[in-house]
């Protein structure tokens, strides 16, 4: 049976490993996780850290066009309603 760890726990352990003030063996004893698992979590954290910043930027860029499009839809709908009333 495999143990499931929470995301918060994995992040905490990976951050502790990134500090490099203790060995993997020490962290393993402290957190009850194998050194290999800690090493995998650390590598995953380091390789995906860039997403923290690029993810926000990408999300921001996706929101801007949709806001512009909704504004355009609203403007066109109002224009269409005016044209219907005037004819």
Instruction: Give the biggest sheet.
Output: none
Q: How much helix is in the residues?
A: over 70%
> What Rg is obtained from the alpha carbons, in whole angstroms?
25 Å
Please work out how many helical segments DSSP would assign. Answer: 4
Give me the count of strands: 0
Could you characterize what this model shows?
The model has no long low-confidence stretch (mean pLDDT 84). This protein is an all-alpha fold. Helices cover 83% and strands 0% of the residues. The longest helix has 37 residues, at 50-86. The chain is built from 4 helices and no strands. α1 (7-19) packs across α3 (35-48). This is Transposase.
Please describe the structure with a list of short key phrases separated by commas or semicolons:
transposase activity; 83% helix; Transposase; DNA binding; 87 residues; Transposase_8; 2 domains; WH-like_DNA-bd_sf; mainly alpha; 4 helices; 0% strand
């Amino acid at each position: 049976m495999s143990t499931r760890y929470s995301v918060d726990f994995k992040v905490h352990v990976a951050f502790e490993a990134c500090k490099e003030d203790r060995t993997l063996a020490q962290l393993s004893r402290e957190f009850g996780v194998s050194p290999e698992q800690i090493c995998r979590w650390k590598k995953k954290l380091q390789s995906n850290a860039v997403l923290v910043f690029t993810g926000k930027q990408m999300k921001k860029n996706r929101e801007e066009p949709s806001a512009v499009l909704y504004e355009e839809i609203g403007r066109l709908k109002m224009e269409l309603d005016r044209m219907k009333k005037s004819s």
